[in-house]
Design brief:
Length: 148
């Protein structure tokens, strides 16, 4: 699902997943696979529309609170019942940040179990995603959005 969010953030282009950033010795880079397009999931126009809609969800909708202060982005939350007759649910959220020049994509799922009750993407999964984004921000992997 992080690839779905990344595809939306990347104007409909999904990059091939990689396990390593580079292969190196102590002194030299031996191989740098770099980004490579894997698939096109949608048109750039459709992706732009989804980015704007996901921004609304992150700022005004069910994912309010997912973005750390000073960071823009987009998100989509979800809830899935474990069974048709059960009140227990899985909670999930996907997204990306920053909005205009995405650097990270994320996906969080909190699986429900019998007796866990109603979990929601915004109430259960979004705080976990916020912690991940905050850690990325603190580590310098995510750039705050300049104030304009």
């Amino acid at each position: 699902m992080a690839l779905v969010a990344a595809g939306i953030a990347n104007r409909g282009e999904i990059l091939a997943p990689r396990v390593v950033d580079e292969v190196r010795t102590v002194d030299d880079v031996l191989s740098d696979p770099g980004p490579e397009t894997w698939r096109r999931s949608m048109s750039a126009t459709s992706a732009a529309t989804l980015r704007e809609l996901m921004s609304v969800v992150a700022n005004e909708g069910t994912a309010r609170g997912v973005l750390p202060p000073g960071v823009t982005g987009g998100a989509k939350t979800g809830t899935a019942q474990l069974a048709s007759d059960a009140a227990d649910t899985n909670a999930w959220i996907i997204g990306f940040a920053p909005l205009e020049a995405p650097q990270v994509a994320f996906a969080v799922i909190v699986e429900g179990a019998e007796g866990t009750g109603q979990q929601t993407g915004g109430g259960t999964a979004a705080p976990i995603a916020n912690a991940v984004l905050t850690a990325a921000l603190d580590a310098g992997l995510l750039t705050p959005t300049p104030e304009g």
